[in-house]
Amino acid sequence: MTDRSTPSHELACLSQLRAELQQAEQLQRERGVRPLTRVRRHARRLLHPAPAALALALAGSGVAAATGIVPAAWQPHFGSPGSAEQQPTVTAGKPPARQLATIGILRRSQTPADRDAATLALRYFGTSTQGVRTDYIHSLDLADGHKAVLVPATTWHARIPNTGDLSKRDVVCLFIADDNGDGGVKGCYTTAEVLDATAHLALGTTFYSLLPDGVTRVEADFGDGRVVGAAVADNVAAVIAPTGMAPWPMTITWLAADGSTVKTSVLGRTPLPVPPSSPGGS
Hints:
The protein is an alpha+beta fold and 282 residues long. It has helices at residues 8-30, 51-59, 63-67, 97-102, 112-121, 191-195, and strands spanning 129-132, 138-141, 147-160, 164-177, 184-190, 200-203, 206-210, 217-221, 227-233, 236-240, 251-255, 261-266. A 7-stranded antiparallel sheet has the order 6-7-10-9-8-11-12, with no helix packed on it.
């Protein structure tokens, strides 16, 4: 008598395929996209799948590999309301591995709160930033009370007055919102710039630094004998300048969790960045 039962290893593969298909359907539903694949509730339909379907389940790890469905990237609005010409391209792709390994906050799963907080920041992003990795945008609550948003992108290009064109690839843009919620300051940095201690911004009386993993505290020397320390949270430190001093230290020292020095960098009196004055900035 012929044994028509399904081998145990096939059943295991089918169970995995069904679970991944259900996960994909739930992911599409959460993103507001009509599911492209419907999982049948009748197990007998899955007992003897086509060889190609079984190979697909075995070939990949994760929902996209098993179903062939690549979730669409989040498509928020950029620039001023109604400004279709200011919309940059977006991508569902991941940041480069080195960037993910360097900036831990990018490895955290995005939340609805991240997207809500990004609404203001994205008004100041235009077509000079392309390939925005919208699923990796994160919001931060800084120690000085300001809100910050990290926006990874494939490319950034801008025309700097008296300097010329400036282009960067695989950047993380840091936006700090102004106190009144209308405006702020923004800078876009490569992973190398973050590691080289050149990813800095200033707004009001505060100096901000985007930092790699492993740095838990910074000490900023303002050149007059006063040194101000600040803890690092979510890869960003906010250093409030001493009274009467511009928020740009002469040197900044990175410290590890054990108090040891990771790096000391000389900044000098670098000109302060100019905050974007209207939506749709670079």
